[in-house]
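To: structure desk
From: M.T.
Subject: fold request, one chain
Message: Could you run this one when you get a chance? Sequence is below, nothing fancy, just the single chain.
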Amino acid sequence: MKKIALALVVLSLVAGCSSWRKKGADGAGGSGSNVVSETTGGGGSETVDASPMNFKATGSDSGSIEGLQTVHFDYDKATLPAAEKAKLQGNVDWMKKNSGSKMLIEGHCDQRGSTEYNLSLGERRANAVKQMIVQMGIPGNRISTVSFGKEKLIANGDSESEMAQNRRANFVPSK
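Reply: Done. Structure tokens follow.
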């Protein structure tokens, strides 16, 4: 009896919360359109734009968002080296061209140090980059920050060159 009750609860949750997309019979907007008809579990329907996002969820770390670059820090520092500061101008130019978008700056660290210390250092790094971008003319309300400390490593090795890849600020755009 308990198994049947549990199965009914799971089924009702799945049925009540599910939704699916299907193309309208006429292509929902014509040939080549990315407009689809959204049909929900309740039988309702609405038209939505299903165009893929222009931004990678991994942000500048992906290397595929033209104009955005990840910046790197020296060990145990929250100030950018001069060579890395030059990269910020390209990111600022990208934000000016994409004035309708916002930016999340992620602060990252290498695997040395405690979790607490690295979260704090990642926060200082992200906030330092935000401050520099604001000084370069981007409104602060378009930028948010988060620290991942040592939780999202790009390189897992113990060599200095691998750890240097992890000491970074990653730029993740959104609309």
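Reply (cont.): The domain at 59-174 is CATH 3.30.1330.60 (60s Ribosomal Protein L30; Chain: A;). Let me know if you need anything else for the meeting.
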